[in-house]
Design goal:
By secondary structure, this protein is α/β, with parallel strands linked by helices. About 50% of the residues lie in helices and about 15% in strands. Helix 2 runs antiparallel to helix 12, helix 9 crosses helix 14 (about 265-275) and helix 9 crosses helix 15.
């Protein structure tokens, strides 16, 4: 699994850039346009939050656990509906932002949470957490499916019978290449290069293989109620993110200038920035190297 140090580059080092671009409580996960790309990013994110809350039956007084809560956008949304949200994240930057904005949040590995910590919940949400549960090394060692099965068991124990769980995750798609073909020395527009760039950007993280692996490992614990692909929505989300990241703002551009020493002297930092320069994330979805799923489960 990705460690706290792994995630702190992805979600803490870029914390300031992202929130200066997208807002104080930015949503760093795929939005829900449902093929209406005239919708703004903010509208599509709110559309996603409403879909999740409605699908899980979240109402006034509902106790909800948000696993890998990010900067707290979903916690904020359900708080406005009268629900009682608890967030956990491994990113210190995200946790600090949530607490600053009045959201109950803890720095915790989501896979270690038990009823002894916070009690039972009416609903559990994981938006983008599963992407970081398995490392490449664990995949090579044949541990991937057990890691997911163990996670589902943890979620199962946090819910009453009939309680609902929403999972949103990237997965490897039908055109994913073999892991040993990824290559930083390959042509910069090749599948070999862009997958290697993403592996560097998300250290310690390896995706599930399709929705089939996600559903198969959940089957002993949960009944699937609804599933949809958000691949096209994610392409639009990343397109709008890029526009906002490069949109001029004095405070933001001064911050960009402060990163110049890292760009000049930190090779690892430059390598991680390649994911932005070469649109690696977007290309993986366009080429169906990666897919994206939204799944509503109910505890058996």
């Amino acid at each position: 699994m990705a460690t706290k140090n792994d995630l702190d580059f992805t979600y803490t080092t870029i914390d300031k850039i992202f929130r200066l671009s997208m807002g104080e409580m930015a949503d760093y996960s795929g939005a829900m346009f449902n093929a209406d790309f005239s919708m703004s990013l903010e509208e599509a994110q709110k559309n996603k939050h409403k879909f999740i809350a409605d699908s899980l039956g979240i109402k006034n007084g509902s106790r909800v656990l948000d696993m890998a809560c990010g900067w707290g956008p979903f916690l904020k949304y359900i708080k406005e509906r009268g629900a009682i949200g608890t967030g956990v994240t491994l990113s210190s930057g995200q946790a600090a932002a949530c607490v600053k904005n009045g959201l109950e949040t803890y720095i915790r590995d989501v896979r270690t949470v038990t009823p002894a910590d916070f009690g039972l919940f009416d609903a559990v949400v994981s938006i983008g957490g599963m992407e970081h549960f398995c490392s490449l090394e664990e995949y090579i060692d044949g541990k991937q499916e057990k890691i997911y099965s163990d996670f589902y068991e943890k979620v199962y124990n946090l819910l009453p019978t009939g309680g609902r769980f929403y999972l949103q995750t990237m997965v490897f798609g039908k055109n994913m290449i073999a892991y040993d073909k990824m290559d930083r020395k390959a042509d910069k527009n090749s599948d070999e290069y862009i997958t290697a760039v993403l592996a560097d950007y998300f250290p310690g993280s390896w995706l599930p293989y399709g929705s089939e692996m996600v559903l198969r490992t959940a089957e002993p614990y949960f009944k699937m109620l609804n599933i949809s692909s958000g691949r096209l929505d994610y392409i639009e989300t990343t397109t709008q993110w890029r526009k906002k990241v490069w949109q001029f703002g004095l405070k933001k551009y001064l911050y960009y200038l402060s990163l110049t020493p890292h760009v000049l002297f930190d090779k690892d930092f430059r390598m991680k920035l390649d994911v932005l320069r070469h649109k690696a994330n977007m290309k993986c979805f366009q080429r169906e190297i990666m897919d994206h799923y939204r799944i509503v489960f109910e505890k058996k």
